[in-house]
Amino acid sequence: MTRSEPFSQLLHCLYVYPLIVSLGRKRNLFIRVEMRKDDSDIRKHPLEAMYPGDDGAVLQKWAHTQVYVGSRMACCHDEIKIFLPAILSPQHHLLFTLFHVDLQTKQEAPKPVIVGYAALPLSTHAQLHSEVSLPIFRELVPHYLQDSIKEGLDYLEVEKMSSD
Q1: Is 2 a domain residue?
Q2: pLDDT tens, residue by residue, 115-148
Q3: Would you say residue 4 lies in a domain?
Q4: DSSP conformational letter for 11
Q5: Structural domain boundaries enclosing 46
Q6: Residue 134 domain-assigned?
Q7: Residue 136 is part of a domain; what is its CATH number?
Q8: Where are the beta strands (DSSP E) in 9-150?
Q9: Among the listed residues 13, 36, 17, the one whose alpha carbon sits nearest the alpha carbon of residue 82
């Protein structure tokens, strides 16, 4: 390192703390968080932007919260560290996928079932230092961030997710 080059890389990070998820009668919930460049192709893989729990490992495509067993209102205690690109476009966003795990089945490893999605546009919310409530929609469709598409989405009644 020389005086003319004190840093070799500029890093922008965002810390997300999912707080509460309420899904009525669903229990045993967990959340997958991913960063997407846009919402045009829902089959496209997310960006590798999630810091793993252990130091030195490569960035991941997803981060998961713990499974909150037995509670209808999941109160999360997870911290998710996200690597942000130097320039955020209006289409960059976080996608939260909410899963339910049925622990009543006799399977050795119960299969998680997707129960909903929530999206957080980063261009408008990346600077927030407060709690945000997000509506949860049932199905992921192309262009789900656009206002004309949002109006037609099937939202879960009264259910929402809060994050800080």
Answers
A1: no
A2: 999 999 988 766 667 788 888 999 999 999 998 8
A3: no
A4: -
A5: 12-163
A6: yes
A7: 2.60.40.150
A8: 12-16, 18-22, 29-36, 63-64, 73-75, 80-84, 93-100, 113-121, 132-137
A9: 13
